[in-house]
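Q: Hi! New to this. If I give you a protein sequence and the SMILES for adenosine-5'-triphosphate, can you show me the bound structure?
A: Yes, paste them in.
Q: Okay, here:
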Amino acid sequence: MATNAATIMPKVSALVLSLFVDLCLFYASDLPLIRGVFGFFTRLWFVAALRFVAPTAVTLLILGDFKPRLIRFTATYSLLPAVLETGTQVLFREETPCVQRTDLRCWSLFAAASAAAALFWEVIVPDAEESDGEKREKQRSRVLFMRVLRLFRPDYPLLLGGLAFLSLAVLFEMFIPFYTGRVIDILGGRFQQSDFLSALVFMGLFSLGSSLSAGCRGGLFLCGISSFTCRMKFKLFEVLTRQEIKFFETTKTGEVTSRLSRDTTLMGRTVCLNVNVLLRTFVKTVGMISLMMNLSWKLTFLVLMETPVTGLLQNIYDTHHQRLTLAMQDSLALSSEAANEVVSGIRVIRSFKTEKHEANRYDDRLTDTRALKTRRDVVGAFYLLARRLTGLGMQVIMLYYGRLFIQSGQMTTGSLVSFIIYQSDLGDNIRTLTFIFGDMLNSVGAAGKVFEYLDRKPAVSTDGKLKPDQLKGRVSFQSVNFAYSAAPSNQSKTVLQDFSLELKPGQMTALVGPSGEGKSTCVSLLQRFYEPQDGEILLDDEPLRSYDHRFLHQKIAVVSQDPVLFSGSVRDNISYGFHGCSLDEIQEAAGKANAHEFIMKLQNGYDTEVGEGGGQLSKSEKQRIAIARALVRRPQVLVLDEITSSLDADSENQVQQALTRCPDRTLLVIAHKLRTVEAADQIVVMGGGRVEERGTHQQLMERKGSYYRLREQLFTENA
Ligand SMILES: Nc1ncnc2c1ncn2[C@@H]1O[C@H](COP(=O)(O)OP(=O)(O)OP(=O)(O)O)[C@@H](O)[C@H]1O
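A: Thanks. Here is the predicted structure of the protein with adenosine-5'-triphosphate bound:
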């Protein structure tokens, strides 16, 4: 109860005080002193402004804020008398009874009319109550917009040039209708050759100036936008390549490529073009209104009355259009995602013969997009119809009064023609000005997506600095716990549990265990693709994360079971990421990997192109190039993850020999071939995310533990 009173009292006080102030002003406006000082129209509009400002100030002082609906009501209420009087004077050359004496009935009438108008507005276009979230969203849009503008900084000279030409183009353009009117007047009145010629020359000059400036403006803006887009694409690509592996596993390829190609382009274009449109429209509108006022201020006021109606139409249209456009963008993204999936998985699709199914799936998504597009177009068509009808109605009224003004000698035919040409553009310009700011903020949606990636800090940091001159290569996993997803909501199981392992320099360790026990996960952790949730992985007693990223990957080299090659020559692929190595070093590494011979038989030897993803080579050849790529950096720790599965016995022997020839290197091998594992100095059997057994082949066989029991399951060839 007490709380209610506490909230109601300030509101009642604000209302009473505002009414009091307003009534004082209402009566004061009729004082002889005021009438004596101001002219008729000046007094009307001055009092209107005071009657808007005073109650607003009172309410603000008492309540501390001013709701939009209250602003609308106060504006209508204070301006209505001035608009009515001006309109009556202009159109009928009479005064209303209300202006002749201050009458409380007039005051009540205006108050009631404004209340009715405000009520009508509330019912037709109610204020969307802005939640905190929406306010934050708007604030965020503003910040994003300013950030995009700041990123344009290197292109400011181009943009400023564009703006200068923009202003020139608009100014020149504005004078063309004026001279059109003059030509008509000259033709319709007493024809004067010199006047006619000078009007034509000016018209021609202004047209030429406007076209040239518009061309330069467009060119400079487009250059600015394309330079910005290139910069953004590069920046984004750089940031993307630094992200951790998990990011790529959880983010769809379509989404990443769409940000790189579509959103970066959209971001520069929409923001830049919106600023362009805003400035152009502003300059044009101000210029047009002044020229129109010059031709006939009465007609200008009449024309401006159309603005609230078109504003309302635009508001309704924008709300629906934006909603449908967003839905369409999402739907388009889904379609391109479906297409991407098909292209990348075409082999699987072919082998399962699901081409028809995939085509239907794509078609379904296209149908959704089309339905949304149709709805958006229908809304657009209705809006266009309503806008045309309003415009047409206004033109009829304008022509009617224009004729009256010509008859009474207040205008010439030429001025009316000029006026009509200006008017045809004015509505569009005012509409654009009213809504462009909102549009500008909405257009940063794409920028928001790009910034989301640009600001993303990789979960696995790569800012270690350690680069020792000497590295022994001792690796130890110390009580490592790891799950692919650490989020409690995610049901992903723990892959490594209290896992400890020591890899010594000069020793070969074989990691064996049933499928899915976490062998490859150990390798991924060693490469720092992921960070363990608990425990530590040390290299020469220092945590892996403290090493310089490039140094670490040079010292720990991994050859995986499914190596990836990039398009380029064999030589490029072997020296990939290890710039400055000589052909001799490359050939030496290729020799150790048993690849030199087959490379020399290729058409261009080491300069032969391997095709996209190494598609022109066999699996074994790709594998051997990948081994050479690892060996060329002379790594201290070498990891071979099931490489022997795709090598023939001959290659396997050669590689094995080459690897054992380097006595200081730490070697970790994951293999399913007993022949490979037998040679290891230590065999580690994994089970349940832990080390179950360790020892040499001989020791483990004698122990008759899990290694002995599982050997049928562990190795592809029989023991
Ligand atoms: N990127 C990943 N995201 C989530 N889970 C994964 C990921 N990679 C592997 N796993 C899961 O982690 C577990 C261990 O996988 P890992 O590939 O390390 O086993 P593995 O012992 O090397 O198996 P294999 O001998 O078949 O290669 C499996 O249950 C697997 O499903």
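A: The first helix runs from residue 2 to 28. Let me know if you'd like me to explain how to read the tokens.
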